[in-house]
Amino acid sequence: MAKNSANGEHQATKKPPPTPSPLRFSKFFQPNMRILVTGGAGFIGSHLVDKLMENEKNEVIVADNYFTGSKDNLKKWIGHPRFELIRHDVTEPLLVEVDQIYHLACPASPIFYKYNPVKTIKTNVIGTLNMLGLAKRVGARILLTSTSEVYGDPLVHPQPESYWGNVNPIGVRSCYDEGKRVAETLMFDYHRQHGIEIRIARIFNTYGPRMNIDDGRVVSNFIAQALRDEPLTVQLPGTQTRSFCYVSDMVDGLIRLMEGEHTGPINIGNPGEFTMIELAETVKELINPNIEIKMVENTPDDPRQRKPDITTAKELLGWEPKVKLRDGLPLMEEDFRLRLGVSKKE
Ligand SMILES: NC(=O)c1ccc[n+]([C@@H]2O[C@H](COP(=O)([O-])OP(=O)(O)OC[C@H]3O[C@@H](n4cnc5c(N)ncnc54)[C@H](O)[C@@H]3O)[C@@H](O)[C@H]2O)c1
Ligand SMILES: O=C(O)[C@H]1O[C@H](OP(=O)(O)OP(=O)(O)OC[C@H]2O[C@@H](n3ccc(=O)[nH]c3=O)[C@H](O)[C@@H]2O)[C@H](O)[C@@H](O)[C@@H]1O
User: Fold this and answer.
1) What is the b/e burial string over 20-43, where b = at least 16 CB atoms within 10 angstroms of the residue's CB?
2) Which active-site residues does the annotation give?
3) What is the pTM of this model?
4) Does the Cβ of 107 fall within 6 Å of ligand 1?
């Protein structure tokens, strides 16, 4: 850290991050963009990888510990010369030379992030520290997938990025939402202290093909239940709301944020808001009209309402979602039918 000799006070360094290896400027070297995607074997990560691989200038490295992700999600890229897959836990340091880091690694379904809460915190805090250390060493730009859960059980509705949230710091969801809040803090501290180029996306409930069938999140639960002829389990009171974003819209928003000039945090989500009873009724109508809707117990600290204010994303990224819930659900149904082996009744 630079020292100011005039008054003896320590000041934040204005030093830019280190430049990439000289090899990258050699005329004999392919000027490809090398991109690390942590958590790339998961639901959103694997769709992001598909999109990044479409660009022939991109080389993609995925680092994943397969806690909630799977090699299956990436099978079409395994063996591709521009693709590498590493079994790696982000709570350990990673040495790779990359230009960009999409840092997604973290279990996202409440059932999975509550399963080993201490590990969830380590993943969010130590994992993000490790990825920021990597970004600092190689001069990479880093994007963190934060969450609408940083707003907790929001008292402001819809939620703009300026809202500081209403989070229980000692509850059963805190490992995830406080973990992500610390991850955001670390991102900004590395940015201010070391000049790291950061991007923060606050993702709101995202759904689509490749979600784990027994993932536990509401959309995947309802579709799997409808296809298995089981009652749709609406957790009480059923009037709580969520806003559901289709995964292709999400990936488009994340790439725009990474490529743009704004650090964020920026909300990326679909503002269409539904109660859980409305969601169950829609799934019933579209997929299985004979199914029963059953009210069941909820879990502690479940947010009562959630809807993104996406003014910032519209203005700064020129982004807004295109896929409506009624159009996205059938695309997910198709994928779940294939994986569950349940064909459509004529
Ligand atoms: N899907 C959503 O609705 C949503 C909403 C808000 C934020 N997010 C964030 O987006 C990211 C991706 O979410 P998703 O829905 O694809 O979840 P997911 O569970 O399908 O994917 C997470 C991936 O991270 C991997 N992972 C977990 N811990 C790891 C560790 N310690 N080291 C390496 N890999 C690890 C998992 O194996 C998995 O492949 C997460 O950071 C999540 O917090 C998702
Ligand atoms: O978007 C976000 O920011 C966060 O959203 C979700 O968290 P949550 O909204 O609690 O997701 P679900 O588990 O899908 O629950 C949504 C609602 O559906 C209800 N639910 C869930 C499951 C079910 O079978 N039935 C049901 O009614 C829950 O009570 C809750 O009110 C994700 O799982 C987090 O990873 C993510 O960060």
Assistant:
1) eeeebeeeeeeeeebbbbbbbbbb
2) 176
3) 0.94
4) yes
Q: Is residue 40 part of a domain?
A: yes
Residue nearest to atom 44 of ligand 1 (CA): 108
Q: What is the ipTM of this complex?
A: 0.98
The residue segments making up the domain with residue 232 are: 29-340
20 lies in a domain?
no
What's 194's domain CATH number? 3.40.50.720
**How many domains is the chain partitioned into structurally?**
1
What atom of ligand 2 comes closest to residue 177's alpha carbon?
37
Over the stretch 266-302, which tens digit does the pLDDT of each residue have?
999 999 999 999 999 999 999 999 999 999 999 999 9
CB 328 near ligand 1, within 6 Å: no
Does a structural domain hold residue 23? Answer: no
Judge if the beta carbon of residue 89 lies within 6 A of ligand 1.
yes
Residue 275: exposure state from Cβ atoms within 10 A (0-12, 13-18, ≥19): middle
Does a structural domain hold residue 241?
A: yes
